[in-house]
Design brief:
Blueprint (H helix, E strand, L loop, with lengths): L2 H23 L3 H28 L1
Helix pairs in contact: 1-2
Length: 57
């Protein structure tokens, strides 16, 4: 997994946690859901890169 890919995945996860936290604090279910989606996207990016790394070896 490349450094840029790791950074992008972690950035999505962190951004999602912030959005979810703000959504919880403001009782905004749309923002909470958007935050959870961003976190999931980050996790999927990590998983995809790990699968790529397995097949490169």
């Amino acid at each position: 997994m490349g450094t840029d890919d790791k950074f992008d995945a972690k950035a999505d996860q962190l951004k999602g946690k912030v959005k979810e936290g703000v959504g919880n604090a403001t009782d905004d279910p749309g923002l909470q859901a958007e935050g959870q989606t961003d976190q999931s996207k980050g996790h999927l990016k990590e998983a995809a890169e790990k699968v790529k790394d397995v097949f490169k070896s």
